[in-house]
Amino acid sequence: MYRTHTCGELRLSDAGKTVTLSGWVQRVRNLGGMTFIDLRDRYGITQLVVNNEDDNALSRQVKELGREYVVQVTGKVTGRSSKNTKIPTGEIEIILESCKVLNSADLPPFTIEDETDGGEELRMKYRYLDLRRNPARKALELRHKMALEVRKYLSDQNFIEIETPMLMKSTPEGARDFVVPSRLNPGQFYALPQSPQVFKQLLMVAGYDRYFQIVKCFRDEDFRADRQPEFTQIDCEMSFVNQEDILKTFEGLTKHLFKSVKNIDITGDFPRMPYADAMKYYGTDKPDIRFGMRFVDITEVASGKGFKVFDDAAYIGAICAGNCAKYSRKELDQLTDFVKRPQIGAKGLVYVKYNEDGTFKTSVDKFFGEDDFKQWCEMCNARPGDLLLILAGNKDKTLKALGELRLEMGNRLGLREKNKFAPLWVVDFPLLEWDDDTQRYYAMHHPFTSPKEEDIELLDSDPGVVRANAYDLVINGVEIGGGSIRIHNDVLQQKMFKVLGFTEEEAENQFGFLMNAFKYGAPPHGGVAFGFDRWVSLFAGMDSIREVIAFPKNNAGRDIMNDAPSPISKKQLDELMIELKGEAKKNVL
Ligand code: ASP
Q1: Which is deepest, 31, 88, 130, 216, by most CB within 10 Å?
Q2: How far is the CA of 148 from the centre of ligand 1 (A)?
Q3: In angstroms, how far is the first alpha carbon of the chain from the final one?
């Protein structure tokens, strides 16, 4: 045994014991007569002390210790005269009797402290050092605890965890697949699962009526902020359930996680919001409902008055920012710049200050009068002292831009507190979305999602308006998960593939096995999957999912620690009978 105790364990009640600890040297402080060493492991920090006059050999030895050396020390636990109330071991220290260096260490490229001087690139390159820091360790501990509580809760509800294959058939619908060449089947490829969707449905056919899995998923998407090519889902499926049963079950899981992990009681049912309302009032399918500031559509009353920007607009929307009539020119300019950023794309911003004295100051005085401003303010429930912010233009784009502006105002006004949590189910998603470029419908969720029964007949006449039995769990404006009731009938499933533009042959080739399975007694079923990384980062109060993944990829999908992806050798390629083309050719080892 290298140790009798951990570095986080000893208390005043242990005084007098001779103990052996092992760990990393956090820091050495030489204060003339005494040398203090902070010894660290996963469990905490313990102070070691050497009296330089008493024992010169030992004091000479510890002076040589560098940061992050791995040492084994033996000594006696004693009470400290100056106690450190910030750490659990702060009442004791260890009078060192011996110290053995188990391994020396190069100077780390950044400080292993809570507030480090290392930027993200550097920390990720040396992630194993970064993981020694408390915030990283706490994030992984939180992740572990959440995984444990998920398993506990779902097991108690009769769910069983079943593993599904990582090497599967490529079914390119949704994101792009990562593919893996098969050496034994030259020219043939596996795909890594974008999610275990078809397998979990097959498990329902097999009778495993409550399945879950904490599982890696892979999507070869273009890089967007805070996306990882591989990520973890809590994947679930149930049989003999309707949408209500699923929402209730996973509301239970959500409440359990809040209680057991964060000690937060979420009482009452989660609000439900139809997708159409989410778009209309918040301009997004994942509204942050920690605060109001809902959109008010003033198109009817504000257009046709000679202001070209409004007259040409399909939609004019306003939000009311409480107590912001006092905003300065500079603050309004900043907001205008904000909405004009290319990612947001608005052409400009109209404001109406409803001053405390009841007068108005606006950017459109030339075109409108007091009666107009009064009417808009009334529609927005604005009070003197408030500020209306108005965007106009193409409907979809303007709703989206107004949604971004609303979030920005929420940030500026401190309405998005990290410690307040507002869960919400967004329901009644459209089944399909039209893509202008390819001139076809795509499944908004995935092709196995069931249309609402009352809308099925519209599949032929007006597919775009068909609503799905699909739902998302949103917390604080973050999409935590989503799912749907599935089609469990091969005829309807075939029809869905047809609407999605698959030929019969393509559908058969890609999903024949599923439709075949449906012929052998498929129960009604549905499910959901939660983005585990995102949920952990929400609970951790961290902005990026990278911080809660032990070894994440960077924003360009690279593992900068071990430098992947990377070329492979000619021999490996030959075995796979793969020849590289064009640009890729220079990448052979
Ligand atoms: N497989 C879906 C997804 O990954 C979730 C579900 O429908 O259960 O988004």
Answers
A1: 130
A2: 21
A3: 45
Helix (H, G, I), strand (E, B) or coil at 111: coil
Contacts of 387 (CB under 8 A, 6+ apart): 320, 321, 324, 325, 327, 351, 352, 353, 354
Going from the Cα of 195 to the center of ligand 1, the distance in angstroms, rounded, reads: 7
Report field, pTM of the whole predicted structure over 0.90:
yes
Ligand 1 center to 233 CA (angstroms): 9
Helices (H), 177-297: 197-205, 243-262, 275-282
Query: What separation in Å is there between the alpha carbon of 157 and the centre of ligand 1?
Result: 20
Residues in a beta bridge with 40:
24, 45
Distance of CA 470 from the midpoint of ligand 1 (Å): 10
DSSP 55: -
The pLDDT, as a whole number, for residue 55 is 66
Q: How far apart are CA 150 and CA 252, in angstroms?
A: 11
Task: Name 146's Cβ contacts closer than 8 Å, sequence gap at least 6.
Answer: 257, 261, 532, 535, 536, 539
Write the residue with the smallest CA distance to atom 4 of ligand 1: 195
For residue 150, how far is its CA from the centre of ligand 1 (angstroms)?
Answer: 17
Ligand 1 probe mutation, 232, 235, 444, most atoms within 8 A of CB = 235
Pick the residue whose CA is nearest to atom 7 on ligand 1.
483
Ligand 1 pocket at CB < 6 A: 195, 197, 482-484, 527-529
| Burial environment of residue 208 by CB neighbours within 10 A (0 to 12, 13 to 18, 19 or more) | middle
| Packed helices 275-282 and 395-412: angle between N→C axes, nearest 10 degrees | 70
Pairing of strands 160-161, 210-218: parallel
Residue nearest to atom 8 of ligand 1 (CA): 528
Q: Which of 63, 53, 132 is nearest to 99 (CA)?
A: 63
Tell me how far CA of residue 177 lies from CA of 189, 214, 287, 341, 567, in angstroms: 11, 20, 29, 32, 19
SS3 580: coil
pLDDT tops 80 at residue 171? no
Question: Hey, how many other C-beta atoms are within 10 angstroms of the C-beta on 154?
Answer: 24
Distances 97 to 46, 47, 64, 73, 155 between C-alpha atoms, Å: 15, 14, 16, 8, 50
Rounded to whole angstroms, the Cα distance separating 525 from 530 reads 17
pLDDT (tens digit per residue) in 274-321: 999 999 999 999 999 999 999 999 999 999 999 999 999 999 999 999
Of ligand 1's atoms, which has the minimum distance to the CA of residue 527?
8
